[in-house]
Design brief:
The protein contains two helices and no strands. The N and C termini lie far apart (54 Å). Helix 1 packs antiparallel against helix 2. With 73 residues, the protein is an all-alpha fold. It has one domain (2-72). The chain has helices at residues 2-20, 25-72.
Length: 73
């Protein structure tokens, strides 16, 4: 919910700034859409990287346990 508010606030701010810079509302909205798309792509990439990191940590801990078990034997 808060993310939607932030995006709406961003949209309004960019439209306002675009109008001050002489852009039409349509041009400003196009910029907002591009920024929103990039934001979503970055969030997806961040989630993927976090998941990958979690998997690597789990795998490393699993190997560590197996190595310890092997050394005990």
């Amino acid at each position: 919910m808060e993310e939607v508010k932030r995006i709406d606030n961003l949209r309004e701010s960019v439209i306002r700034l675009g109008q001050q810079a002489g852009l039409s509302t349509k041009e400003a909205l196009g910029l907002v859409d591009e920024l929103e798309q990039e934001f979503n792509q970055l969030n997806a990439e961040l989630k993927r990287l976090k998941l990958d990191l979690t998997r690597r940590i789990s795998a490393a801990q699993g190997m560590n346990s197996r190595l310890k078990d092997a050394l005990r034997e």
